[in-house]
Specification:
single chain; 419 residues; alpha/beta; three-stranded antiparallel beta sheet; globular
Length: 419
Amino acid sequence: MKKMRVGAVIAIAGVAVAVSGCSSTPSSGGSANGDTIVVDMWAGSESDTAALKAQIDIAKKQNPDLKIELRTAPWSDFFTKLTTNMASGNMACVTGMNSGMLSTYTKGFVKLTDADLAKAGLKEADFAPGATEILKNKGDLYGLPFDVSTMVAYYNADLLKAAGADIPKTDWTFDDFEAIAKKATTGGKYGFGIGMGDFQWQALPIAKSGTQPVSEDGTLQLTDKAFVSAAEWYAGLVTDQKVAAPVASASDGGWGENQFTSQNAAMAVDGTWNAVSYLKNEAGFDAGVVPLPKGDKGDLSLVLGSGFGIAETCKNKDAALKVLGSLLSKDSQDYIASSGRSYPARAESQPLYFESLDPKYRDQVKEVFEAAFKNVEGQHVSDDWGKVGTFIQPQLVSVYNGQESMKKVLEDAQQQFGK
């Protein structure tokens, strides 16, 4: 997963989007002879595009008989174009997909079977425990991940020490979290930066309740008692406990993360994909990272990430599977890991990621990652999950300002999008 700008929800990288699939011409959508396999992925910078090209070069080397073409677009444009391409039958044969977006696009992807994986030279056992859940929906496998991530807590050790607060430990609890946040709320600073992004605000309620807002079969359960209680507790960090500042406006999508990096908040929740950037922060403060605190029902956290699937309209599925296999091969995953760009999904490549890190924080990241990924669960999403997030997110401002209750917002969303 990409090292995103602080405040983004989830992404990886680009420049121009693919409007074709397995084809010899950009407009044929894979209907020609399937002699070119197009790989469509998002990219947000020149370095991201260069990293994708390096992986494409590996695929070309492993498949000298195939023509492989990379097309990229920025995250903000990628899914808009993908919607158009899917509707017109012009999806690229190998198309990138993110765990949180999959439910909207399942009709565009082939359901991968064990036979398909064999043709790609892959098997689910190649990947870290829980990793293949990233691109599954209601039990069906629509793609395979190239990276894995989960939500963790980051802290500013300088602010905590100055406030006389404890430093969070790997096995900390929600009682510990509250005590630290209260102690660190002093001198115009807050103990915690409240989240606005889907993953950022949901992470602690999920961990505290041990419940996801969607059931395993894709049924929306925003009004589950345990989840509602935990979500109300989360909003209460602003309104009741006053250990977090209210959000200024709905446009502040990265409010909590930005409060943290600007040293206005001592702690914040964000993804493992940002671990290196937080620990090497430009402000120069002493930062640390720990898994989410443990709740009464354990330490539930979601495994997130991105990967590739095969388009339903692809005219040369076998060739596309070969390319998929190369993009997720040991060589390609070793490249991702060694560059330190993201935590690879392939289990045997993961140690290389830690070796790529600065020795200053290498051991800490390794310890936290191993603990944080120990009890992960695949994210459950409903068919309208993207719309649910769009509905809830702007209302969080009113919730955090005490003008609306979290319970009411969740009930309204359940009524509108529940089936």
